[in-house]
DNA sequence: CGGCCCAACTAATACGTATTAGAAAGGGGG
DNA sequence: CCCCCTTTCTAATACGTATTAGTTGGGCCG
């Protein structure tokens, strides 16, 4: 800041001039490593001294242009991660990605441009910004498939947190084993004597929902219970779930509910409202288990029976997988499935033996 | 992924070949803007079509190498931001930086490499990684001055969140007005009749501490109270603050405490312990005000009288300042001071009229 | 018909680094 | 004294884009 004139950053050429060597020599010394032992010790020191004096630092863009890696991992989310109301849900993922990225010696690039929901796109502006990073971790429920397909087609290395499938390519991912977790939940309920278990399903037919559905059916099959498609309810509007409605279901013979939390938390909120209304007591009148973590874990809400994603661990695994991908010459998809943790909670219990007349439909 | 052979990303040259034009023309069409209206409409369409068909996306490294800017803002913290125990303190800064970065159309680069405390340095590996970004927001209490000096010397654009000074250069920053906030706090206590106000000062003599000290003295002066250097206590170990100790102080005539929270929260924890012990009642026996936010705001702790930093706002301002810096041809330092918000709380009250014999020292 | 200007394009170059082929110097063996 | 090898360095080039100066061809004016 001594003079106001625009100062150019020192380059290897400047160092070369000062040390009386060629730019190539500087490059060999600086980027060190393998080929640098063919440099005389005196020269090497001269170069390093000059670099020091000039305050040299490598131009990462140039380095990366040349084809080398630039030691950046990207994190791209299909939903905004930071807004406070979703903070508690996404934070562990963020935390895990950050930790493991650092542990692997990379820096983390958060793609945040154009948070305005509509424009939130990988391919905004004609430039695929993701490619500034060596590879990318992707996250989020509302995936735009075309973009994923394009990424796969371009052979860009990325790992999704959560199972995602796309036509015409294999996607690497770290996914929670919703199938087993859901099946086990059904098994637990069956062991408690439940026969008619209603599954409240998310509206969007994303992979996590498909997996839970598969787990539901598998659980029923393994418990020897019949499958009744009327017992899968897709909710367009979670507000439909009211005390009266739940009582109707109970009247029709349902003794347990499985609820799939959505990222907007409205279903869980509706169920909590039913709980507080006193119209239905969980688990005395009806058992209730959540197929995942409620996004907003306020701490004041009930301790629902549920299973829980190891989110920090998943995120760390995703980064590890990504780094492995980068080391491979050809990108073959890698997949990892991690088990969910069962949280006992207090909202399931034995199936009621018989119903009084007040429950008749 | 159709074939396992490594596929090269399409470049402007590929497009040019396909569209039967030159690379320069492609560049003009793609990067659009001003000079692109000298291109015939037919040509432009041909180029765009070819780009589309090839799935072109610009190489950001090359673009940035050429133009100098790559639309990245960096965030560098001198302490780890993510670890959960400091999460609540730093999160608002992170949030603000992220929001405003996105709003300004930049992406955010988190410098996380080498979180291992010792190696956590801007100049790790001989290359100043910060410079991958166009500019940088810095954050944290445990600053390494040499690094700041070097950054200034290199004329790298950055903004510190918090006032930081360094010899041989002007640093841009967004700072909370600790001076006024502290002075006002003293004024408040003086108005309540307090005459001997003990200031518990942080051990490290960083700028925030200097500002509070200045505010303390200014507040005393404006209230017409004498300055007594014995009333400034530097605590090497916050554990020294015990109920007995506070009673000693009270015995020596002190009627109010000003405490400067440290980022490890130990002082506030010690005071909370004193409060819980019942040995001293705040504010009946002694008034107590915090000169800032306790880092760990658990919600269960007392509602201390204090002032509070507009952290999200400060972070956003820092990003705005940074973007302004980038627009300037020559970097002149820019500074911004934002007021703190007074939080009444319940830990200050009128000075006790007289003391019983149990308080004598 | 010659000169000139304009529209539409292209050739050439710079950006900073990594890498490779090869040059220059020095030494040792025949 | 020549040849070859080793050590140590350099020249040249590629990476993909943006930009500037310049080229081409055609139309218009005098």
TrEMBL record, chains A, B:
Entries under Pfam families matching the protein: LacI, Peripla_BP_3
GO molecular function, one term: DNA-binding transcription factor activity
Domain of life: Bacteria
Domain HTH lacI-type, first and last residues per copy: 10-67
Keyword terms of this UniProt record: DNA-binding, Repressor, Transcription, Transcription regulation
CDD domains named in the record: HTH_LacI, PBP1_LacI_sugar_binding-like
Stated name of the protein: LacI family transcriptional regulator
UniProt-listed PROSITE patterns: HTH_LACI_2
The keyword Metal-binding is assigned to this record: no
The UniProt record lists the keyword Nucleotidyltransferase: no
SUPFAM superfamilies named in the record: lambda repressor-like DNA-binding domains (SSF47413), Periplasmic binding protein-like I (SSF53822)
